[in-house]
Specification:
The complex is a heterodimer of chains A (154) and B (129). Chain A is α+β, with helices and mostly antiparallel strands. Chain A folds into 2 domains: 60 residues, no CATH class; 92 residues. Chain A is built from 5 helices and 5 strands; from the N terminus they run ααααβββββα. Helix content of chain A is 48%, strand content 18%. In chain A, 29% of the residues are buried. Chain A is globular. Chain B is of the alpha+beta class. In chain B, β4 and β5 form a beta hairpin. Classes of the chains: A alpha+beta (154), B alpha+beta (129). Chains A and B meet through α3, β1, β3 and β4 of A and α3 of B.
């Protein structure tokens, strides 16, 4: 999804880009499409409800929310998106649910094809997971998120 | 002194832990989980207490109150392959004299055994916002 360029979207943007320093223009080209891609990914994998909840967690939960709540960690959110890119959720009665955890993580819950719960919490260091079918729980670092996504959601 | 097995405890469930279909297991994951004692403050009064001090509208709203018996909670902990002796310790706060905590670490696997045993109370019809 990084192929979307500002120049292709609007001639007004092309003119503005032409007036900028090359380094600044390239950083803008990289940033905006990534955010668009993330929004699209959220909608595609979690639907409007999941998209809306993530939006609220990112924008409206301030430090100290709840009892001892921490704001959503950018690293946890990054891990969440890395996982979502690789995950495939079986079409079921309800889509995956997304929650904000007190320590500033983001949690994804769904059911496997046999109706057994699967859960992953994304944290500042990676992810913690639980698979009810095998009563298996564990933790993985950032670099192991893609294999975990394929294993849990396939 | 830990709470007696006969006591019932509750925990506020707000929108960050409930999306209308599923309850977040993280509601009971971790250490020093905050709960509240029905023996000190009755359930109907907990709605107002949690609305005033726990929820933060418009985004974080109180949706449910989850209840479990202390003895039942302890039995779940002890029935694990690696048994956990859970206790509930009174920790009164200015805003909530019924406040208590579960000091032991509750793993995600154990939390998943606790969740199905919770009694979920929905807000009284007149109390909906």
């Amino acid at each position: 999804m990084t192929t979307l360029s500002l120049a292709a979207k609007s001639s007004a943007y092309s003119l503005a880009e032409g007036l900028r320093e090359p380094a600044a223009a390239s950083s803008i080209r990289r940033g905006a499409p990534d955010e668009w891609a993330r929004e699209e990914l959220l909608l595609r994998k979690l639907g409007p409800k999941g998209w809306g909840r993530v939006y609220q967690f990112r924008n409206y939960y301030e430090p100290g929310w709840g009892e001892k709540g921490r704001v959503l960690s950018p690293r946890a959110l990054d891990a969440f998106f890395r996982f979502l890119e690789e995950a495939t959720f079986a079409a079921g009665r309800t889509g995956p649910s997304v929650f904000l955890t007190d320590r500033g993580g983001i949690e994804l819950c769904w059911e496997d094809p046999n109706g057994k719960s699967v859960q992953v919490e994304f944290t500042t260091t990676g992810a913690e997971f639980y698979k009810a079918a095998t009563d298996e729980e564990g933790a993985v670092a950032f670099e192991r998120l893609a294999p975990l996504a394929r294993r849990l959601s396939g | 002194m830990p709470l007696a097995q006969t006591e019932d405890i509750v925990r506020a469930v707000c929108t960050d832990k409930w999306d209308g279909e599923r309850l977040s297991p993280s509601l009971f994951v971790g250490e020093n989980i905050s709960v509240s004692r029905l023996a000190v403050v009755p359930l109907p009064d907990h709605w107002e207490l949690f609305r005033q001090y726990v929820q933060k509208p418009p985004e974080r709203r109180l949706e449910l109150i989850a209840e479990i018996n202390v003895g039942r909670l302890q039995n779940i902990g002890l029935s694990q392959i690696l048994p956990v002796a859970l206790t509930v310790e009174p920790k009164p706060l200015d805003w909530n004299p019924a406040h208590a905590e579960i000091p032991q670490k509750i793993t995600r696997g154990l939390a998943n055994k606790i969740l199905p045993e919770l009694t979920l109370h929905h807000p009284p019809a007149s109390g909906r916002e």
